[in-house]
Description:
The structure is a homodimer of 343-residue chains.
Chain A: E1 10-25, E2 40-41, H1 52-70, E3 80-85, H2 91-97, E4 104-106, H3 113-126, E5 132-139, H4 141-148, E6 163-165, E7 168-175, E8 186-194, H5 208-227, E9 236-239, H6 243-256, E10 265-267, H7 268-271, E11 283-285, H8 287-303, E12 309-313, E13 315-317, H9 321-325, E14 332-342
Amino acid sequence: MQKKIRQQTIKFKNPVYIISTSSTVGPKEGEGPLKDFFDLILEDSLYGEISWEKAESKITKETFARALEKANFSQEDIDYVISGDLLNQNTGSNFAIRDLNIPFFGIFGACSTIGEGLGLGAILIDGGFANNILIGASSHFCASEKQFRFPLELGTQRPPSSTWTVTGQGSVILSDKKNQDKNKKLPCVTAITPGKIIDLGIKDANNMGAAMAPAAFDVIYSHLSDLNISPDYYDLIVTGDLGKIGHDLVVKMFGEKNIDMTRNYNDCGLLIFDIEKQKIGSGGSGCACSAVTFAGYLYKRLKDGVLNKILFVPTGALMSQLSSQQGESIPGIAYAVAIENHD
Amino acid sequence: MQKKIRQQTIKFKNPVYIISTSSTVGPKEGEGPLKDFFDLILEDSLYGEISWEKAESKITKETFARALEKANFSQEDIDYVISGDLLNQNTGSNFAIRDLNIPFFGIFGACSTIGEGLGLGAILIDGGFANNILIGASSHFCASEKQFRFPLELGTQRPPSSTWTVTGQGSVILSDKKNQDKNKKLPCVTAITPGKIIDLGIKDANNMGAAMAPAAFDVIYSHLSDLNISPDYYDLIVTGDLGKIGHDLVVKMFGEKNIDMTRNYNDCGLLIFDIEKQKIGSGGSGCACSAVTFAGYLYKRLKDGVLNKILFVPTGALMSQLSSQQGESIPGIAYAVAIENHD
């Protein structure tokens, strides 16, 4: 008797519609190539608050509200909220969601959080456990630098391999039915491949792209194998925040398997910033990097038909400041989310 | 037309069997009233490691392994792992799970984590998305004190309202079928009520029981209303880590609704320690408090038939050290998990 081969990928039976998204970004993201796709560009990163952490919660709260408004929904229409961020104990999300009267699942996937959220949200809907789910992920450059690296006031020089944490929040509403544009195709979550934690021993918190690349490779490879498809099934395969170094490593790892990823593979961290002109280092990073690139840019490109099928692969580095201080390496994770236009 | 009343509670269609549990605790828990129910009592909290954080990951890794062994499972039998803890960026879990070759969902519900995990795990199984799920939650007294309050070396005096973070990890395996004891009844997750974040303005990190009690009350009340049952439907209703102060507040809040909770309601934080003899303050707390009390004590009491139906309600305080320093209040959350013996 053959031993059951465990499938990592969940393919959904019913269309899980993405009926609304919303995005807010900081000033630097508002000067980047995707600036015309975001709903709100902040003029300053404190956003009228007395701390960056409070600003992050305010951004989350307001971006959630805008996603609801765009879906013509009130809070009562949402069954569950799923959200996470980079701040210790997920306070970016917790302090935003305490004002919503909606049951909550808190998640932590570092910068892969929006991928984990889309996966769990689609599971709740496809399984018939919910009709509408609100999902979000946020990060804040200043709060992250302070928490993970150095106080900004030190003016520490950043090595070229370092990535730039995106300030912002991306919100997504998943639903079992279309509530607007009923005659149009809508982007749907069609499959999710949750990743394994992979740690090949990278210890440099200024080179997170390299630390996360093996997890991205592994989950994309598993996704393609499970569904028996090749990369060109998708119009675009897009990782979360590997930046230039991590992106090139993924291309190289697939090359070693004789799979060509040079044609339709990009990274949100390379889309959101012009890394040369904006002097960004290796690219954008943070939970918001993939969340706002999806909620702002990719979702609109799907809706207007420029893209039809994408594999969205948010990536996360699962270290803490303390684990780095204790000499630990950086474990990586990624979630592969298939999103396709559907009637 | 009547507006749809949103139901917070998910009632599972199929039995979601709890086929195995495992628990590890620290020395202080090993001197408490539940000492005979735990699989492993550590002789010291460093457990041969050079830091408390590394010790927490080692405890998690080994307790997971023991849960697999007790189910007669290997890693390959598990579809997904769900885990979380109190350490910044969930490193207690991440650094344990990187050595498992199993796709992972990281969650953060503070001390309510095991409840959130049991809920999501049961959703994955009842929805047909997985056959077997491994779930865990951990905490460590020394690592928590250092992270949230004061370095232990300071010998800071603790007020009587403070709770004592449990050192340990509780693991649970959920499955769509019994793999042992096939003719016996087994505890099953039959329903889950995910909580809303509730913040009534308590700011004292040494009185978390009071901060979490309103969330516990709210989710238990919603659970009973959604299913149209009274508290005496259950043999035991047991919150996670409210301690004496929070427990008494919950009884009082139900009293104001003319619902008697004095007969079958207890708290894991009061079960795990003898608060007088062990000089614990208000009771036990931390992710491990409810996780090991369930995995060690409650699961065995269900299996031997002393209990048949329980409502297990892990509770969490969603603050960070920084949010307290910035003068924020403490938002609370709770998950109500119905567990009943089933053929």
